Amino acid sequence: MIKKFAEELAGHKKPGLISHISPDGDAIGSQLALFHWFRQRKIDAVMFNDDPVPSNLTWLKQHEHIQVPEQDQLDQCDCIIFVDGNHPSRFGKSAPFLEATDKPLYLIDHHLEPPKELFRNMWWDHSASSTAYLVYELFAETGLEQIDKDVAEALYCGIVTDTGSFRFDSVTAETHFAIGKIIETGGIKPSDIHAQIYDDKNLDQYHLLGMALNNIELYCGDRVATTHVTEDMLTKTGCTAEDIEGFVNYPLSIKGVVVSMIFHEREGRVKVSLRGKSVMDLNQIARKFNGGGHFNAAGAWHSGPISKAKEDLVSALADMF
Ligand code: 5GP
Ligand code: MN
């Protein structure tokens, strides 16, 4: 099946690779690895993202080729590949174009419930640890020797970030086997990559984290933890919304906590990030609040304020225990 998928992709002359708003390590890592795959075939792929590459990922080679989508550039593509997101609404301003276009659409992704009818073909597995793992499978199918250093860094970055550094439920022997191949073939040093991704914090971010940790509250018999970050907290610490990435994972280390949620004010609404330990389908909860994602990691939106968002989400979770 992946053979046919690879052949179909390689039959295009100018594929557009688009990833989701607020891109994370998996979005950027898989997009870049796929970009290299096309370039190795002398295919002129173009990468599109609404939002900039996060500052801890700008060491990844070729990231500067990722551009904000303009209509004329989208028009020039002979197909569009959704990377690490399964619905046009995940891709920001290009959503209306993606909804309406008659260009062939492909999907390479691991999120639940893709609208399958949209796609000419897809390489999709919701049990995959990351989209980068699925891109690795494309390399494995078409020749592991194509995993040079640039590809290996991109794949490693996608897998390590989407698995919480190999600690989530989605991690299997296959994940580690793939990582072994990526390290070996690409000749990369994992500790260097971890340092680039994770050891780039400044003191302001730690002050913000301190405030967020101070805001932790427990609900549902201490099984659900919530915290929040307000615009005011960002202003006080000189941080931006990007700096909140990863905060939601901290309360999951409290003994007994099985779901963690962080609420933050964003563009006049409240963004909710949910993380869990395999006790309930957080994608289903997030879908009730204009979002989605995975069983154990999802994002949702609420009209606010934060206190009401907390009340509504906690009550939706309470019904599921
Ligand atoms: P995060 O909490 O880091 O924003 O997102 C967690 C997971 O849920 C990611 O896999 C992300 O792609 C997905 N996700 C986040 N926000 C949304 C959303 O608004 N809609 C959907 N469908 N998925 C989301
Ligand atoms: Mn992902």
What's a concise summary of this model?
With 321 residues, the chain is of the alpha/beta class.
How would you characterize this protein structure?
With 321 residues, this protein is α/β, with parallel strands linked by helices. It folds into 2 domains: 196 residues, inorganic pyrophosphatase (n-terminal core), CATH 3.90.1640; 116 residues, Diaminopimelate Epimerase, Chain A, domain 1, CATH 3.10.310. The chain is built from 12 helices and 12 strands. Strands 3-2-1-4-5-6 form a 6-stranded parallel beta sheet. It has a 6-stranded mixed beta sheet with strand order 7-8-9-10-12-11, with helices on both faces. A hairpin with a 4-residue loop joins strand 7 and strand 8. Helix 2 runs antiparallel to helix 6, helix 6 packs antiparallel against helix 7 and helix 6 crosses helix 8. The longest helix is centred in the N-terminal third of the chain and has 16 residues. Bound molecules: guanosine-5'-monophosphate (5GP) and manganese (II) ion (MN). The site of manganese (II) ion (MN) has 6 residues, from loops. Guanosine-5'-monophosphate (5GP) binds next to strand 11 and strand 12.
